[in-house]
Amino acid sequence: MIRFWISIIMVILLVFQGMAMSLLPSRIVYSELLVTPHWVLCLIMLVAIFFDKDETYHSVWYGLAFGLLIDVVYTGVLGVYMVTYAITAYVTHGLQKWFHANFVASLLLAILGVALADMILYFIYSFVQVTEMAWGDYVSLRLIPTVLANALFFILLYPLLKNRVEEWSERWQSA
Q1: Distance from C-alpha of 88 to C-alpha of 22, rounded to nearest angstrom
Q2: pLDDT in tens, 9-19
Q3: What is the mean pLDDT of the chain?
Q4: Residue 100: which of 89, 88, 109 has the closest Cα?
Q5: What percentage of the chain carries pLDDT values higher than 70?
Q6: How far apart are CA 10 and CA 128, in angstroms?
Q7: Which residues contact 131 (CB under 8 A, 6 or more apart)?
Q8: Residue 5 Cα distances to 89, 112, 165, angstroms
Q9: Residue 103: which H helix or E strand, with range?
Q10: DSSP string, 19-76
């Protein structure tokens, strides 16, 4: 039942992440900046930090499943988000062992995770020639705005779900 609730929240975030651009002011949407919402990934990172234990990898499985859903719903290339989100969840799961699970460390892991995921996506899309954006343009026009926007979303998501995810983890371990 616990994993059902996490999945429901991720589906809701998946739907709203598709509508995120319509929530931004028009001067940002129609500017040169490209902001990509990674809201599902933010929740996956919360799961990696606060739900997973050393021997469990639920966040990686969520990354595979919901990355595939993002590929099916929003992209034309299957497997790109699936692999990217799974790798990012695995790296976050590994790095969280070195940090205390507090807000600052979680925010830094979220920033690192979003940056890593977006760079992996950029390299894959560059390799298959879906995008031809130069590295410097990518960093200034897409990576930095994407990381800042998703960090802001993580700051909003953290107080809403952090305690709930920890509680679900404790109930999952005791079941």
Answers
A1: 27
A2: 999 999 998 88
A3: 91
A4: 109
A5: 98
A6: 28
A7: 122, 125
A8: 19, 26, 10
A9: helix 103-127
A10: THHHHS-HHHHTSS------HHHHHHHHIIIII--TT--HHHHHHHHHHHHHHHHH-S
